[in-house]
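Listing S7. Sequence submitted for prediction.
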Amino acid sequence: MQFHWQNPYPTIRMPVMGRNVVATSHPYAAQAGLKILHQGGNAIDAAIAAAAALMIVEPVSNGLGSDCFAIVWDGQELHGLNASGVAPQAWNPAYYAKKYGVDANGIAKRPMRGWDTVTVPGALAGWETLQNRFGSLPLADLLQPAIEIAERGYAMPLIVAHKWAAAIPDLQTQPGFAAAFMPHGRAPLAGERFTFPSAARTLRALAKNGIRAFYEGEIAEAIVAFAKATDGAMTLADLSAYRPDWVGTIQQSLRAADGQQYDLHEIPPNGQGIGALIALGILQHFDLASLPVDGIESQHLQIEAMKLAFADVYQYLADPRSMAVTPEQMLSPSYLAERAKQINPKKSTHFKHGLPASGGTVYLTTADAQGRMVSFIQSNYMGFGSGVVVPEWGVSLQNRGYGFSLDPQSANVVAGGKRPFHTIIPAFLTRNDGGQIFPQMSFGVMGGDMQPQGHLQTLVRMMNYQQQPQAACDAPRWKVNRDFTLDVESNMNPATVAGLIAMGHTLKKIDDPYMDFGSGQFIWRLSDDLEDGYIAASDSRRDGLAAAY
C-alpha cells in the first residue's frame, strides 16, 4: 500500500515505526510490553504483559474479572481465541423474574450492574491459553511490570480520570467498589497517585501458583464467598468448569483502491465482529474511492451499510449454539448484494433485518521482529463493569451478563453455561497475493457498539483512500446508535453534517462519557521483508502510546 503520508486532521500523534512494536491505550502498558520484548519475549508474551498492566492503569475499562478475545499470527498462520465468559448455571429468565419481577409484556426485568450481570471472567484463562500455546517466557516475568505498577502506583492520566469520575455516581454503593476505587472517598484526580495493592496481591499469587488459582484455588474461593455474602449466584463449579475456545476467524474479502486483494478477519459470534464484515461486504458494491473521503456521499453510504449490518446483528447474534442462522449465511455474497440494493444513495433509510438463506474496553496490539502479530482486546463492558470488587484481591468483575436477552423467544436468551452477545472484537487484515496469504495489519477500535463501526471507518480510509494509519485513526467519526439515530464528532466537516441531515439522518447527541467514539490501535506491516518492520498508530482519543524499537 502506498499511503498518502500527510495527515489532514488535527492531531497530537505521529505514526511510529520499528521492528518490535506495542500499541496500547496507556503509555505504561505499552512500555510493559516493550520491556518483555527487550527481555527476549515474543509478541504474545508482550501482549499478556501489556494486558496485565492495563488492568492496573485503566481499571475503568478492564480488570482481573474481565473477558478477552485474541487473533494471533504465529508467523505462519492465523488463530482466533474466544475467552469470553459464560453465565452461572443458576441463571435463566425465571431466576430474574423471581428476583426483579416482570415488565408489562411479561419479560423478566434485570439490573445493569451488580452480581446478576457477572458472567464467569474469561480474560485470565485467555492469557493462560495464549501463553501455553505461543509464549516463550514464564508467567511470572510477564506479570512483573503490572505488579510493580500496582504496588508503586502511577499518576492518574487525564482521560482515565475523567471516565473514572463519571462512573462514581452509579457504582459507589456496589459491593467492594468504594474500598478499591474511591481513595479519599472520591475518584482520583488527574495527576494524583493511585496504588492498587490488592490487585498486586492477586497478580503475585498468579505468578507463583499459575492462572488456575483464579478458577480453582484461594482466589476462586474468595470470589465465591463474596458472591454468597452479597447475593451473587457464582459458584466454584461455575469457575472451575470454564475454558476458552479456539474458534478460528471469519472473514470478508476487500479490494483496495490500488487493486490489491485483502481479507478482514474477525472472531465469529458471540462477538459482533460479523457486523463489520457485513457492512464492508455491502460496500464492495459501491465505488467509494471515486467519492471525496470526507464528503457527504461517502459517509452516507458507510452509515447505511452499518445500519443494515446492525439490523441483522441485533436480530440474529448470540452464542453460536443458539443462532437461527450461521455466519456463513449472513456473509453470503448473494445475500450481501441484495442488502446493498436497499441503500438509497440520496436518502437515509430505517432498515429491518434481512432473511439470510437457510443452510468500557481496552484494545492492544503487538508485533515482533520474527513476524508474530497479536490483536488483543479485553473488557469489563461498561465503565468498571458490574461495579463489584472482591475485597483484598482487587478483582473487579465485568457486567457482560447485561448482554443477554430475557425474552424466551430470543436466540440470545440467558441460560446457564451460555455466552452472551459480546461487543468486544479484535481484528486482523491479511493480504492475498495469488492465493498466498500474508499478514498485513493487527488492529482494533474499542468502545461498545462503536467497535465494528470503527473497523469499518478506519479500513475504508486506508483501503479506499490510502490514508496512513494515524490519519485514518485521527479522522472524525460518526456513530450509529441502537435506535439508528446518528452521533457525529464535533470536528466533522459542518457541510458534511448538514448534508447528512438533509438526507434524512437524525442526529441525536448521546450522553455517553465512557464509550464515546472509540479508540484504536494499529500495527501495519510495511513489507514482506521483516527487516522493514512495521508502522503503528495509537488513537489520540485515549492516553495511549505506540512504542517501538
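Caption to Listing S7: primary sequence and predicted C-alpha cells for the chain studied. Residues 1-549 form one domain. The first helix runs from residue 27 to 38.
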